[in-house]
C-alpha cells in the first residue's frame, strides 16, 4: 500500500473538538510536525476531515 506524508500547517486553536481529536489521532502534535503513514481508507478519511489544517504528499 502507498505511503503518504502528512504535515500540520495550521493551528488547532479555536477548532472544534472533533478536529482536534482527529489531528491527535493522526499523530500530529504541533505546527510543522510531519508523519508518514500507510494510505488506508480510514487515514484518508481523517485527512479529508482536516484537509484545511494539513498538507499531504505522496511518498
From TrEMBL:
Recorded GO CC terms: cytosolic large ribosomal subunit
Boundaries of every Large ribosomal subunit protein uL30-like ferredoxin-like fold domain copy: 4-54
GO MF, one annotated term: structural constituent of ribosome
Domain of life: Bacteria
Keywords of the record: Ribonucleoprotein, Ribosomal protein
Subunit architecture: Part of the 50S ribosomal subunit.
PANTHER family linked: LARGE RIBOSOMAL SUBUNIT PROTEIN UL30M (PTHR15892:SF2), MITOCHONDRIAL RIBOSOMAL PROTEIN L30 (PTHR15892)
Family per record: Belongs to the universal ribosomal protein uL30 family.
The protein's name: Large ribosomal subunit protein uL30
Lineage of the species this protein comes from: Bacteria, Pseudomonadati, Bacteroidota, Sphingobacteriia, Sphingobacteriales
Gene that this polypeptide is encoded by: rpmD
Amino acid at each position: 500500500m502507498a505511503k503518504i506524508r502528512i504535515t500540520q500547517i495550521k493551528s488547532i486553536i479555536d477548532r472544534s473538538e472533533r478536529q482536534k481529536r482527529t489531528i491527535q489521532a493522526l499523530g500530529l502534535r504541533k505546527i510543522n510536525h510531519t508523519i508518514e503513514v500507510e494510505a488506508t481508507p480510514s487515514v484518508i478519511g481523517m485527512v479529508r476531515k482536516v484537509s484545511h489544517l494539513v498538507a499531504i504528499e505522496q511518498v
